[in-house]
Specification:
The protein has one domain: HUPs (Rossmann fold, 3-Layer(aba) Sandwich), CATH 3.40.50. The protein has eleven helices and seven strands. The strands form two sheets. The protein has a five-stranded parallel sheet with strand order 3-2-1-4-5, with helices on both faces. Strands 6-7 form a two-stranded antiparallel ribbon.
Length: about 280
Amino acid sequence: MGEVDFNMKLEERIRELIRDYRLIEEGELVAVALSGGKDSLLVLHVLTALRDDFGFDIVAITVDEGIRDYREKGLDAARYNTKLLGVELVEKSFKEEFDFSLDEVYGIFKSPCIPCGVFRRHILNRTARSLGADKIATGHNMDDEIQSFMMSLVRGDTRKFSKFGPKLEVIHPKLIPRIKPLWNTSEKETKKWAILNNIRVHLEDCPYSSLSLRSRVKKFLNRIELKRPGTKDLIMKSFIKTFKIEQEDVELFECEVCGEPASMGTCKACELLSVIRGSL
């Protein structure tokens, strides 16, 4: 398949997903969570190409976690591509928001991915809301979705099943719903897109990723896919067919410390901040 045919097929699949699941409504502002990696850049480029057709607008948000010799490359790719496409880029950082970098605090936790994920989501949601965004578009692809599903299955955490799917509905006025335009696009395809189109992109893996359960699940699934091509597609189809993508009723409160949405009296970000400040 040539470059033009590949791009057209990929864009059409994302267009159909947006239309079929009503990921974006006319007149909405979509905040793209932009890391500078291949997945989030594909979301940025395709949504920029589709925004006139669907009648929405875009802004991009990037979060610098403070990972030396890694994040700077992603920031460079994010800045270059947003300037190229004429999309506003809002830059935030752990240092600016919390007065520490991930490098400075990761050792307090069993896995660096725990504070990184919590604080990134906290900053993205708060920033998107301040910008008046209606949706946050993330670069989660089909591989990510399968990995998350398998991790929840192994842990017996069936509550997480309601979070799978290409779209999360509004469950709290302060919580901006997430959409996943790459929900049925594989990681292999996003990498092929970046290489074929000579995109300035950050392709390196996070230096902390090898410490996570997700990394081990990813390697396991990739080994199976190598031996039996098409396995990931079958898992995804089985998941869609077997599990109802319905969100359970969740009662959310407002954090007693920061006022952000929380499932308990204190949100996870403030809970981790308390642990970090008590350890520094």
